[in-house]
């Protein structure tokens, strides 16, 4: 496909950098002729495939994968008043099949509660059917009227992993909320993406939920990106959709439910958190190509070098690495540029001198260069990847910590959110939230903060001076 | 979930059998409140996951996976006159976003040519970009007005694997058609599903294609099920969507294209070809559970048996098998019924006597019983699975061969298609096709037959007596 030329904007200019890296690193093509819909380049889809492979493995430990229809009849969709109110401006409606008008319009799922829960009502009979923990990875749709942005604000979310669980008691559902948060934390750990958890204010929870705990990361421009949500649904939906079970005494009881989701924003986070002025930087766990081999061809030993490179490729493939041998007839510098842009974590260079000394030169995407013993190359790479992962995660945590400021006044909060996130005490009232939001031009993101990077405490609300708890104030995507 | 009770209809009564096995074996739930849309049970989705894993591995050898949007603007969709004519009565239209009417209605893809090819026009510049071989696995939509049937005739095809390739020359595109057919054959071999390939008559080819070669299997009721199609598109779409490349001489050339697809009909084929009066029969390659362990608990050695069963489970999991230990407090007969219905290829029974003699009793889904040495159990199972696979495939081929009759007259053809497929000589004219179809109440499926089960030849057309070639006549799903 088209090769990019010219320099990537510096990452300090984050918005420009983000837009450009998407096509220069062949992640998304934004030229699809409908606003808010984008095309995955194969390379970008490769990142998605590996990241969702990790997510699937985590989910499959104690969830089962399934698949429900995209189209939801308006009649089912409208049953849950609070829920539909949260989505009514955002739903795409199918009104025609061929040239005929449909009797009942069909919604493109914005999320699948109203598709799944009528079936749960049929499936769940007894306490022995519980807990039920299912998930699906599907496309969902939002008619976004705001500015759209690839991977972040979409009209077709192509990769929505949504889980829907059913439990006998409220306590078990609350435990599931915690289990889901732990699972999401583990997922983002694998991606080396540091996160902050917080409980959303009541006006910002999922429509129909008792409460919502969200997973956020902080982007390079200091704005937060919500990259996961876990909702405690209580018995709200089970009463609407009649999801009941017979308990051990033979009595019918309403079930308790949770749901939780992660989208391709997870990929936006990986790109944004780790990337640098030269392009993507990918942890090996999500890199479609983990190792690129560049033969250094000089003079007369061309065939020997190419054959040594091919041998190396085959050994590494055998060891389970995804490897690309770049034997194109180009100058090495152009190859380095190409693979650095795409975030390949490790480049191996092999030339006549390396063959003579039985070594290989390894250069990480962040520039660390080591000579590896050719015989121990597999172990050498594994150990470089482990270190590289640690390095990326530490750097990301440090960058995130630097973007969090503990503040004691509205003025300090207003100043802090210009370049990051403020942590302040807030009493929990909507009135004070409005004051804080007006004074800072930012949002109350959430309370009950959980993060290694923030120490939480009680203290006076920065708006009214009443009793408050630590709360995140942020500009958000 | 709900456990089925009562007997499965006999497979001779295929239509009833098919409908009932879908819910009794927990494959699809047909109670979703929109006609033609169905819900995958987790168990059924497990079969789909394994089968599509095989397909992905085959595709990934020399294709790249990608993802294009579901929604296609009417303006793009309408560009290809012949193509749209083939689909215009079947397209779902999104006309509203929230409460506003959209400026341009959006089609739910019935297939993705019109979504993908405008992007190919941007991506392909030079002969060095070719060949381009991409695929995606997506949901597609058809507003079916005919009778719908789970996995076979759907309004939402949930699992459409479509590939779209671009080549410099017509010859290379034709070679790709052959490569795709070989790949599909390999896929169905892995599923132990025998197939017949044939070239569709011109009026039955893909709208916009030069020609279509289809992959069919024969269902137990003698009707054929089309389970894969490969289309030679020529330069038809490249001229409409302006897909050109600069050749080595610097001249602009139109590219040649192919596309080919497989849907969840592949799962319908596995179910229908192998199942029997007791339920599903799954080759281990697609079984969500390959081995079920049933501890035989008698008298006082309960704990010892359960612990031996758990040890066996853990050893088999370690060896890479998907294993279920069924230690429910139920009589063994009920457990056998449960897992036979779900097609688990192998049941292991372990009780006090087996512990004493250091053996395990293995029973295949088709009833072959062997005693395995406990120490060599992993090798024993691998060898049983290899034999089981051979047995299933041979039985399926034999059943298919029995449903094919070579005929020499219209009367013989009419009789043969009552219970299977007729192979007759046909001259290729539409007039004779109409005569044959009227006389047999069946369809001309295709010519240029390729199958180990059929010997092809030239001979007099059974309608006009003119020169004809071997042609399939069949009732079709």
From TrEMBL, chains A, B:
It catalyses: tRNA(Pro) + L-proline + ATP = L-prolyl-tRNA(Pro) + AMP + diphosphate. It comes from the Archaea. GO terms for cellular component: aminoacyl-tRNA synthetase multienzyme complex; cytoplasm. This is Proline--tRNA ligase. SUPFAM superfamilies: C-terminal domain of ProRS, Class II aaRS ABD-related, Class II aaRS and biotin synthetases. It comes from Methanoculleus thermophilus. The gene is proS. Its main location: cytoplasm. Residues 56-283 form the Aminoacyl-transfer RNA synthetases class-II family profile domain. Signal peptide: none annotated. The keyword Zinc does not apply. Homodimer.
